[in-house]
């Protein structure tokens, strides 16, 4: 059992207790249920015991636009077959454009200091132009529209335009190499591709022209619309220039009224065992979950300013876009968050009046190590909430935030993932913050921690699960006609015990407090590489490494290191090849260009052989266990278990 400091680092004042949106919702829940609901634990229990009443109230409280229908939940035998609001008809873009006024909707800033902004009324016009052009080009509900884009205003305009007519939006960050993009978009065959021809990162211009030509040839989209990375013109062959394409639009079509579970987004798994899984998220589930998280758990209102540092290849981008439903202003940042120095994003808080600031645990550590003390160098007057995700926020990072950033701050460590496009545990404006903990379990999410026997435990580590259905459960996987891959991904873990529950793959622990339960995330329970919260699978690394003739084979793991994860690559050399500094640099550059710059190995080591199963599969989990000094229990399943000795007690991994 984990022992934590029981003195809270922060407590809500009377203003938050009495005037938060959660307090107003809580009062309505009491009136609706006829129950006293004296504390958050009771409110949460009601939300999972009475899902129809709870989610119906969330719809009304959040003022979702559309026809709700009479039925909230159509129950089914299997967890995944439950249908929420089966008679509803709504449109995601209409809900993400709740205002028609000149209030600022989006502010876009890049690392070079260029700034642009757009109002809600202007955003509605621009998204309507995209919708009109897509519709006139023959794009229909269910067609895929993809974006290979930085985090900027045009990306959100394109996504809203696609949602306006019921197309499915999917996006990749431009720091993914061609193969990484093809592994994703190649599966869903987008009819339209929006792309930027370049972007700046860490003071350098990255030209994407060559990549776009290759993607156009391989993906063969019917339309390629290019947004210039700088200036107003682009030289990409056979591409439609963004501004001219928009200017030629006719009147905006009506918002497409679609079922609650009509696909809105396709996101991607890490690709651990092959090509990334294409996860389809429905419009209604995404909207209602984001509305709950932003409005109730984050206390985000129409006069607030929300920022989250993210790329368009991470689900936090979709989560950030969901903030529009609250009528808030979103701040977008593109570039290195520490350029020209680690105080860059804190500058943004002051210049843009950010009230809700989101980042990664790794960024918080980097700021601390850089010796920056924002409490002395910045005002931060507007800042009320600081979100952190990607990896567990260190105990010491909590101390740093309260001592060196701002004492009166709701530090909201959140955890969920691509699979649910949201969170299972997150912040709460009416609860204390304890060192090392996520404040609470999300309303409507029947979260628990199970031991290996499928029993719920408190104060013990185990598997994070969700016991009952929730609206943001994915609709399906793309190209999974019988649904077996979907079933295996989330429901296989406890199936042998006869349990049909969602197992999330997190190693976690609940902590009981008076009136509520906190949560500690101890890391992932699978082999996904997750440095700084940016997920990628081992198969994607192998595809790059094995293009080099000097490398016969490789295994890659994530090593827990200084509160985060660092990537460690082990290679078996081919023939007389030598793993010298030049080859290490070549390996790193190959992975940077073909997969992702965020997953370049920190350490590269040579081994004579790699452990495999009898069927020939590389066993990353066994290697990772050995590196971390843990016992490998499944040696009998290995064809060459003695190979594990080559990974044990390597002095290079203690440096």
TrEMBL record:
<dbReference type="GO" id="GO:0030729">
    <property type="term" value="F:acetoacetate-CoA ligase activity"/>
</dbReference>
<dbReference type="Pfam" id="PF13193">
    <property type="entry name" value="AMP-binding_C"/>
</dbReference>
<dbReference type="InterPro" id="IPR005914">
    <property type="entry name" value="Acac_CoA_synth"/>
</dbReference>
<feature type="domain" description="AMP-dependent synthetase/ligase">
    <location>
        <begin position="99"/>
        <end position="469"/>
    </location>
</feature>
<protein>
    <submittedName>
        <fullName>Acetoacetyl-CoA synthetase</fullName>
        <ecNumber>6.2.1.16</ecNumber>
    </submittedName>
</protein>
<dbReference type="Pfam" id="PF00501">
    <property type="entry name" value="AMP-binding"/>
</dbReference>
<dbReference type="InterPro" id="IPR032387">
    <property type="entry name" value="ACAS_N"/>
</dbReference>
<dbReference type="InterPro" id="IPR000873">
    <property type="entry name" value="AMP-dep_synth/lig_dom"/>
</dbReference>
<keyword id="KW-0436">Ligase</keyword>
<feature type="domain" description="AMP-binding enzyme C-terminal">
    <location>
        <begin position="547"/>
        <end position="617"/>
    </location>
</feature>
<keyword id="KW-0547">Nucleotide-binding</keyword>
<dbReference type="InterPro" id="IPR045851">
    <property type="entry name" value="AMP-bd_C_sf"/>
</dbReference>
<comment type="similarity">
    <text>Belongs to the ATP-dependent AMP-binding enzyme family.</text>
</comment>
<dbReference type="InterPro" id="IPR020845">
    <property type="entry name" value="AMP-binding_CS"/>
</dbReference>
<dbReference type="InterPro" id="IPR025110">
    <property type="entry name" value="AMP-bd_C"/>
</dbReference>
<feature type="domain" description="Acetyl-coenzyme A synthetase N-terminal">
    <location>
        <begin position="40"/>
        <end position="95"/>
    </location>
</feature>
<dbReference type="InterPro" id="IPR042099">
    <property type="entry name" value="ANL_N_sf"/>
</dbReference>
<dbReference type="Pfam" id="PF16177">
    <property type="entry name" value="ACAS_N"/>
</dbReference>
<keyword id="KW-0067">ATP-binding</keyword>
